[in-house]
Sequence to fold (188 residues):
Amino acid sequence: MSQIVLHTAMALTSASLYGITWFINYWAFLGLEEITGVNWVFLPAGIRLLCTLLFGFWGTLGLWAASFLIATQFVYPEQFVYGLTVSVLSALSPYLIYLSARRYFGLLPSLHNLSPQKLLVLCGAFGMLNAIFHHSWYWFSDTNSSSLKSFVAMTTGDIVGAVIVMYALKIALMLFPKAKAKAISNNH
Fold:
């Protein structure tokens, strides 16, 4: 597979997963929304972290594209600059966590060297960084509530969403080889 096709597939996979998860989260947890775009449970945060850890820059590019479309067409249709900025921040925070994980944890492309403890650190750091970025913009732009409660809600929602997605995937991957080995042993 050529690099262009591979990179495009990474970006499109990230964009699709994020978009689908965003809309599922929107309808499933609408009652937990603190302010527009800030939710006490935000599963798309886990998709952002996962896709960035798996696909690096190309995952980030796909996440930005999906975030941009959602922000400018659905969440803030009358505020293009606001939506553009929020989408950049949404893609930037997991990418900075990815770069930090590569540097400080020696993150491998397979992610197999991510222990549960390291994964929890990444989820927490991502949730905090994302909330700091977004609430700095909210405060600077003065177009959205930048209260302590919305900051705590975003931090909590992003960490909870990231932990749910990342640990669900980790558990599923741990169970898959066992199921495969069991199927092989049953055939013999």
About this structure: The first strand starts at residue 33 and ends at 35.
